[in-house]
# Entry
Amino acid sequence: MKIRIDNIEVEFFKDETILDCARRAGIEIPTLCHRDGVEHYASCMVCLVRVRGTNGLVPSCSALAQDGMDIDASGEEVVRMRHESVNLLLSEHRAECEAPCRIVCPAGYNIPLMNRLLGAQRFEEAVNLIRAETGGEELRCISCKAFCENACRRKKIDNPVSIRNMRIFLSLNLTDTADVTNSEPASAETVRGRFSSRTGRLDDSEQREWLKECPDNVTRHREITDFRSAAEEAVSCMHCDCRAAGDCRLRDLAGEFGLRDPGGKIANAPVTKKINRNAGLIFEHAKCIKCGLCVRICIDSQEEPAPTFINRGFVTIISEPLTGQFDDIIPSVARKCIEVCPTGALSHFEDNNTI
Amino acid sequence: MNEREEHTGTCNCDNNALSVGEIVSVVDSVVRQTGTEKDKVILILQEVQKRLNYIPSDALKHICRVTEITPGQISGVSTFYSQFRHIPSGRHTIKICAGTACHVKGSQLISEAFKRDLQITDERNASPDNLFSIEEVACLGCCTIAPVVQIDGKTYGHVRPTQVNEIVNDFLRTAAREPQHDDDKGGNDYDAEVRIGLGSCCVAGGSREILGRLLEIKEYYDLNIKVKPVGCVGVCNQTPLLEIVSPADENSRYTNVRKDQVEEILLKHIRPRSLNKRLRFRINNLADTFVSDDLVYSPVNIAADMRERTLNDFLSIQVHLATVNSGVMKPDSWEEYLLLDGFSALKTVLRSHDPASVVRIISDSGLRGRGGAGFPTGKKWGIVAAEEEKEKYVICNGDEGDPGAFMDRMLLESFPFRIIEGMLIAGYATGAEKGIFYIRAEYPLAVSRIRNALNICIEKGIVGQNILNTGFSFNIGIFEGAGAFVCGEETALIASLEGRRGTPNLRPPYPAAKGFRDKPTLVNNVETLALVPWIISNGADAFSSIGTEKSKGTKVFALAGKIARGGLIEVPMGTTIRDIVEKIGHGVAEGRSFKAVQIGGPSGGCIPESMADTPVDYEELARMGAMMGSGGMVVLDNTDCMVDMAKYFLDFTHKQSCGKCTFCRVGTKKMLDILARLTKGEADMSDIDELDKLCIDVKNGSLCGLGKTAPNPVITGLKYFREEYEAHARGLCPAKRCRDLIRYNITDKCTGCTKCFQECPVNAIAFRPYEKHEIDQELCTKCDNCRVVCPEDAIELVNLNDEDKDR
# Structure
């Protein structure tokens, strides 16, 4: 049995999908909710192809190949619809890839990453980060007006994180013997040139969601004189960036498709963060694209609780069964779900955007 | 929480009276009845809710403990379907129909009035005394008596916003009564048979009271009559409807019968048996003549042919195939069904046809699926028949969810045996041995009629093992839908039968090859099955000689909305829309002008008056951008706004979307937002351009029929009424219906009678007897009460943004 995809003839076996055939022919079709080894679901519609003859569009991940089919997998209409599906997903994606501090930084330094390393007392890594970002040149913070602190969300709670002083302190700890890694220095152009999703307007209660990751009592330091004070100050960071910013299929596709973040985002729920410290899991509703991978990956396992879909339609979301929270999920199940999540909806405390 | 609130019933929290022990014992008892398999989840949830009023979280947990159902499954399923409540509701649920016909007749205002007068807020959906909760339901299927409100199964029609207290008090006063039965002593030597329609809407129109009165009079005068409740006649605009048939077969019909006219009507046709009873009548009659003038106007004195005319007009171009014998049969009578040729088609099939020839007959007839898609039925039967698998299923799709459609409800209520017969024939033809009736839970009477009919059929051996000794066995079960329009789609329907969330799957594979439990499954609409016995009995040619080239036979429509005479009708395919509206429906009511017809519900589209000569035909309607759909036909007049209608439909499809695929889930929401802003005057021309684009994308990119057809009302709206959309982009509502764009104004015709002041629920009109009244625009909520009660017609609607132009 044969089908044609983009004028390439492919033989197929019973129950194979158009996507299976395309891959065998070396034709790239983007996917988001599909994963090998997991039952197909046809949710994201990024893998749409056109069936010549009926002219209908079908999701290639689920459409069964049929003898004599002639498929258009790269024509203008097909590409436009794929872009549109990502565009629609972005329009309910009230989330941001990069923190405000990093976006306004003239050097594009990865401030939240530094804060996480410091907060976890991984001091050597924090110093190495500064080294890599400066690439042997002088730390630009020294002569900078600290736009980062002006943009810092913590400012609305009490005081901005003392970013500039932390970075200057760390740079003073750079020793010459340490080797300069082969990384390019950070640059604002790189950061701002990548596609980034923005959150749009948040109300006050939504802004306070980011406080959930901070301990209740933080000691604030304006002057940073040692690693202890740096670490103490670092935990007041609200981690506005997305843990999956370097590992997000949605962001990748948006970038690949050359899309701009749509304005006027629609809310299917308030922006929330659900945190399970035991499992190290963070769930952000606004980043979920309802692909169901986390549900499907756990279907055959007996370990409870596993995420399930709740509600219907536009307000569908995932959560643990019966509670609507993520409080009881065990670390191994959490790890599995986080790994399979194509966006930053499910992420781990220790995941980091190292780009 | 202060003491007053704590557990006195004003608190709606989960600590309501039920103890965990009670919950556990109810669950245990339910599970004992239903079984513990995973696919029983919906049935179990329905039963638990019936007994406990809602589903407490402790119930969910215990169900998982004592069955194979997992917590993930129960959470997913109990939150997907609208039927299930996780917080207790008031003791009585007031269902306010938000179907299309009710919407155009002002159901929004009704909803607001109920909430206001019973002090029910959105946060806490129960009245302060915890007696009532409000549920806005997609459609109760009583469209011709719109607007409709149903309280615990008691239906009220033609509701006005000012009637809230009247209705509530009536409900509390009249406890649910058992339907009255005539003790049918059998035999045929009656002087006459008196038939009264008792479909759901007839009951709402007061037919039960008429039935009660009939039985009273029968007993009082000892009349030798058979009082027979019959199923829906379809003439919903003329109910209560009485028909008197004498052995000489004279039929006399009386429409809009009032309780006080029953005595007279009966006694005109029937003589009391005994002398003193006859005397009784003469005396009473005489007395009445002296006392009232009513005699002159009594229906009895109106010449029969004049009475018949309205009925005849209504029935004139109709052809009854699916609804043959409407108004004649008692729905739950086995004997009558047999008498009127019931089950003769089945007997013919079992005794003289092999399955392949039955499939051939249906194919030759040209019958196409009546659920909306119009797939050739014979072809579908052929696919299932050709499958070699031994285990096959036939499912009757009675999940009629289109707001504004009630054909399937009527067919199930009035002709249950016929549908069963159709299913048996389908089972024989395709090689299936099991059938399932999938009926939406919002149709309790349909469910109970089918259940009773099935029990009788089993008793009589026409359903079960070795039917009529032919070796053919077929068993039928009933499943009640749990409230999800998307489950009308066959793969979603099957998902719900299997205890899963009702999300559709891509086809192929088609259910005909791999459906319920992965076995070949035939899914047919109620009306499709209802036509099968007729086709078998009368032949494929007889059926295909009716209709058009590609659309054979007849179609049942629910004619409702702004039509003078609405009802359930069955017409040959090819009849034009104009003929239906004018000849049957008698045109638009109240002297307004015919603007458009919405066909096919939220999946359909509007056909403007200028195109009303379009014949009813699958391809013709599709060519116009609309869709045959399941048969809902809502007539719109010049006071209906096409943008408002589109918004209404998108609101429906958006809420009913299963949420699986991107284009439907997000696309319908975006379209709804734009339409909502248009109705508020907050959108501009670029929004209309975006709407154009979204329509095409959602139509092409959605996974299933719901998403693919959701944009249709907008597409046809933009195609035929674009200037109306553009007017809204400029802040004007030409039909003067969008409340944010209009205001109410009292003109000089005002005589100061103060009626508007009395009816205004927010005191926006000051009391000024004999002076021209004025509406305070700051307070006015545009509830329409004042305009409706004004005896001088002195209240007009004015567009806010273009005062001079619209005078």
Remarks:
- The CA atoms of residues 359 and 382 of chain B lie 6 Å apart.
- The first strand of chain B starts at residue 92 and ends at 97.
